[in-house]
Amino acid sequence: MSGDHNHPHGHDHAHPHGHDHAHPNDSVAHAVGSVPADYADLTVPDGALEPKGLSRRRMLQGLGLLGAAGAAASLPALPAAASTVSDEARSGQGPAVTDDGRKYRWLAGDHHIHTTYSRDALYLVDDQVSMATKYGLDWMVITDHGNVAHEKLAIDQITPKIAEARKKYPTLVFQGLEWNVPGAEHATVIVPPTSETVSFLHDFERFWDGDILAKNQNPTGPAVFTDSVENTPAAELQAIIGLNWIKSQLLAGRVPATLVLANHPMRKGQVSPHEVRQWRETAPDVIVGWEGAPGHQATGIPLPGGPGGARGEYGNSPNPNSFPGYSPNFYRTWGGFDYATAQVGGLWDSLLAEGRPWWITANSDAHQVFADTHALPAGAGSTDYYLANGNRGVRVDTGKPITTYTDFWPGFYSRTVVGAAGRDYLGVMEALQKGRSYVVHGNLVDAVDLRVRTTNGPGVTVGARTSVRAGESITIDITIDLTRKPNFNGELPKLARVDLIAGRITGPVAGDARDALSTSETAVVQSFEVSTKARKSVTFRHVLRNVDGPMFIRARGTDARRNDSAGNPLMDVVGQADPWQDLWFYTNPVFVDLRR
Fold it and tell me: Within this chain, do residues 516 and 491 fall inside the same structural domain, yes or no?
């Protein structure tokens, strides 16, 4: 690849933020009802199933929803604008697609937020939604931890609280779940509000949550608050069957959409590369990505008189359930980002190099907020209290700031910005599903527009796919609205450098390569320095000439206060990682196919 670029120049790039939204259909049919957990457990032989379970197994096998055949099942598409990427173009065989981002509403959000209905969190629903609104979020997802008490008690308690918040605040509030993924760790489950949302969440959690599965294996034992069941092939199979169950509900029309995003994937090393590949192949329209940057960013802030903790809560070492191929680097954040995302040519890029979309997000994972003075009432912090009540009571003001195990309020530091066709629930979900998004820390920039052109047209934006003939050129424009007001730490961020990253698509992998951690054909192809005199916005251009194969293109930017000599992020130091001194943005990629 070879290229040239021009110097930055000013450019207006407004992202509208309104407060209108459409109400989803409240009459979604429930054609496939609740199902027993063993109907789809492929380790259970047919002869051991009751007739009802065997009948349902046969039904889902006929739909292609069990085993490897599940990858071929076709799900209903989410609503989208007319020019959204077509299935034909996504296969790499179709014409270039125009999806330039200018027709969308770019909405900031957070898909990983906890309340007092989690076993380890502090705040009321109203607390989280009011703060998300205060700090400029358009959408958010409440994701309390799955477990026996949550499924039996907390879901029904939190439902009316979310309904009240939707009436009180303009922010779109999803009711979701943090799934204990069997054989792995955690994942966000997002469902739009319909008449079936609550029953869907009950059923999914009861059948497929790893904490509940572990408890079912030892019903008389102590309470189980686990990040996963054992990392074994049998446990991994339960996650695949759970994803297939979601597909069965979508095909039946029970809910119009469900999305899954893996959370803090490398935190404990329990999400292995082959699991990610299997998830994506099993349910490509359901499980669509992971947290490129985890929450808990405030935990690394140094404390008066001593060090803080590990940024992102990434302060771990390998455990018996960890993937053995991960080096110690995977257990730390790098510039606040998961190492699998932050390493150019690393695990994220190796997934993209297969030509399969896999998107990144950023969020707060808000449990308790740095320097907040609230705490649990007496007795409410115990496991017994939570198991008996399904919540941890109403927080009280102690006047003593929280300084350990700390987060930021939703929108205060981390944002996932999506390009939605409309300001409504399904619009946000469609944007997340298609990867039409980018992530920002500390308000480093106001907006990012990555555009790839293979003709004289407007080109395509993040998450889209286009095509080019061999030997032709690709023009890439990165337009950035610079921040013009202080962030919520009281500082005016200064974008210093933007990196354009490109990688060759080499195709799907098989065998041992399904645990591949890297790709050798991804690199920073151009770095752009941002002038200290730049105001308002800047645009950078790069031309890739004589394209000879399919590729993906993405971008990142930094304040360059903490990089290595090549401009890459450094490993965050446990106890000394102030997130405000190390700011980045990352975009999702654009895919470019070679056209016949």
Answer: yes
